[in-house]
């Protein structure tokens, strides 16, 4: 749950506070409006035991954090004063105990509601798992009922391992400025141009649901096959599609940002689990004995050692025996299939329409940044179904001429990453470093 406790607790708010089951066990109904939200605490002010004996709530400026370089809002300070008064706190220590109690109960409620969500959607209890990817992988197996065959032929395993290629990330054109009526400093004497930033909805989720057109696409775009080195025969089906569709539909129905991100993650996590490298896994041993430390260092599987203090070290050891029990052929296929969509969109949609008027400036796995010489890109979209039919424009304003709601968050469609805002200038120093 990669969100703050404050936002997670806010997602549970209802007029009756019925989702705060654990908190309600410790507080009466009249207390709930005050305890069903994340409070604030002056962490840096509390720098000694004596501070906890203070009989008044510290001033607002005492809540300032040098770590985040932020203070608290007036409404948050008012809430802290109301909590102090309502619960009759006599000292800062009383307030501290109450603050920690509320934090723990809120966290319990958030996780219990998360368990409810997982039980309702997948009929699996999240409390039985260490990580969300582990939960997603089991949910996928349970929902699809598919039995996956593991690789027993070592040469075949090596073929898949060597064939894994990550997403394409590159800066093809490092700098460009847009020149159109909506950009600052527009020069009508120069050719009009736009900078467009597009992102593919749930690229890996789309790829997981597809068949394998890789070779056919490459041949259509000019690849000449001179020799076939190796062939693997297998039964092909889109068996993962219904699991992807389930999470896509749940994402559309999501009531808050956490649920929206969670169901997207559940799709992507399946891919990540199939890409898990067993070779890179290490055994970590905490060692406090000097004799044992020397034994570990002398082992042929010794990788590295991290010293915490004179009595504690963490020794990383490679595994003597590697058990290849992950279906890496799924991740291998997904990576290659995902590239076919990006290639198809670039060569057969954008470049086919604009020809020499378009330059690909930057690409990052599932996103493309273009510099296009045109009067108005959005007029082009509205007038050409070959462009608009590949776009998810549900994130544009409802009165926008290109707005179409039916493809909202549909995997495989491209959306405007800046929601129709204007990008006046683009600069990329290298891959993963752009402005």
Walk me through the structure.
With 435 residues, this protein is of the alpha+beta class. It folds into three domains: 5-124, no CATH class; 154-272 and 328-434, no CATH class; 282-318, no CATH class. Helices cover 40% and strands 14% of the residues. It has a six-stranded mixed sheet with strand order 1-7-8-3-10-9, covered by helices on one side. A three-stranded antiparallel sheet has the order 2-11-12, with no helix packed on it. The protein is globular and about 80 Å long. It starts with a helix and ends with a strand. The mean pLDDT is 91.
Distance between the termini: 29 Å
What Rg do the Cα atoms give?
28 Å
Task: Count the DSSP helices.
Answer: 15
Strand order within the widest beta sheet: 1-7-8-3-10-9
Strand content: 5-15%
Helical amount among residues, as a percent range? Answer: 25-40%
* Largest sheet data: 6 strands, mixed
Mean of residue pLDDT values: 91
- The figure for the number of domains is 3
Question: Which residues sit in consecutive blocks of at least 5 with pLDDT less than 50?
Answer: none
What structural category do the secondary elements indicate?
Answer: alpha+beta
Element-level helix/strand string: HHHHHHHEEEHHHHEHEEHEEHHEEEE
Shape: globular
Q: How many runs of DSSP E, i.e. beta strands?
A: 12
Record the SSE blueprint:
Layout: H1 5-11, H2 21-24, H3 32-35, H4 74-86, H5 92-122, H6 132-144, H7 154-163, E1 169-171, E2 175-177, E3 194-200, H8 203-208, H9 214-220, H10 241-252, H11 257-274, E4 282-287, H12 290-298, E5 302-309, E6 312-318, H13 328-354, E7 358-364, E8 367-372, H14 377-383, H15 385-388, E9 391-392, E10 414-416, E11 425-430, E12 433-434
Parallel strand pairs: 9-10
Antiparallel strand pairs: 1-7, 2-11, 3-8, 3-10, 4-6, 5-6, 7-8, 11-12
Helix pairs in contact: 6-11, 10-11, 11-13
């Amino acid at each position: 749950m990669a969100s703050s406790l404050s936002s997670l607790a806010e997602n549970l708010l209802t007029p009756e506070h019925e989702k705060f089951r654990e908190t309600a066990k410790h507080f009466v109904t009249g207390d709930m409006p005050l305890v069903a939200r994340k409070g604030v605490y002056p962490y840096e002010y509390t720098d000694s035991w004596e501070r906890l004996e203070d009989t008044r709530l510290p001033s607002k400026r005492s809540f300032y954090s040098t770590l985040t370089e932020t203070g608290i809002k007036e409404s948050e300070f008012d809430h802290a004063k109301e909590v102090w008064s309502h619960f009759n706190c006599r000292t800062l220590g009383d307030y501290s105990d109450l603050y920690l109690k509320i934090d723990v109960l809120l966290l319990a409620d958030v996780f219990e509601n998360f368990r409810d969500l997982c039980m309702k959607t997948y009929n699996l209890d999240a409390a039985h798992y260490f990580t969300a990817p582990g939960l997603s992988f089991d949910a996928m197996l349970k929902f699809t009922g598919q039995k996956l065959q593991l690789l027993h032929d070592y040469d075949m395993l090596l073929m898949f391992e060597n064939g894994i290629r990550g997403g394409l990330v590159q800066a093809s054109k490092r700098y460009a400025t847009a020149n159109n009526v909506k950009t600052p400093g527009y020069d009508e004497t120069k050719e009009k141009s736009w900078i467009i930033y597009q992102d593919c909805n749930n690229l890996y989720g789309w790829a997981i649901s597809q068949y394998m057109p890789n070779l056919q696409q490459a041949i259509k775009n000019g690849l000449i096959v001179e020799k076939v080195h190796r062939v693997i025969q297998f039964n092909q089906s889109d068996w993962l599609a219904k699991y992807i569709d389930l999470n896509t539909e749940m994402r559309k129905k999501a009531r808050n940002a956490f649920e929206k991100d969670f169901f997207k993650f559940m799709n992507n996590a399946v891919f990540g689990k199939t890409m898990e490298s067993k070779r890179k896994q290490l055994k970590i041993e905490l060692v406090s004995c000097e004799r044992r430390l020397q034994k570990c260092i002398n082992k042929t599987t010794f990788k590295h050692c991290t010293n915490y203090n004179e009595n504690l070290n963490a020794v990383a050891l490679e595994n003597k025996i590697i058990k290849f029990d992950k279906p890496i052929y799924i991740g291998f296929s997904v990576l290659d299939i995902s590239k076919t969509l990006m290639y198809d969109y670039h060569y057969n949609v954008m470049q086919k329409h604009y020809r020499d008027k378009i330059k690909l400036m930057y690409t990052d796995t599932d996103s493309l940044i273009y510099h296009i010489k045109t009067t108005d890109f959005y007029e082009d979209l509205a007038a050409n179904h070959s462009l608009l039919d590949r776009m998810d424009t549900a994130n544009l304003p409802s009165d926008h001429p290109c707005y179409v709601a039916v493809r909202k968050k549909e995997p495989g469609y491209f959306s405007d990453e800046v929601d129709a805002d204007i990008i006046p200038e683009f600069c990329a120093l290298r891959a993963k470093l752009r402005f």
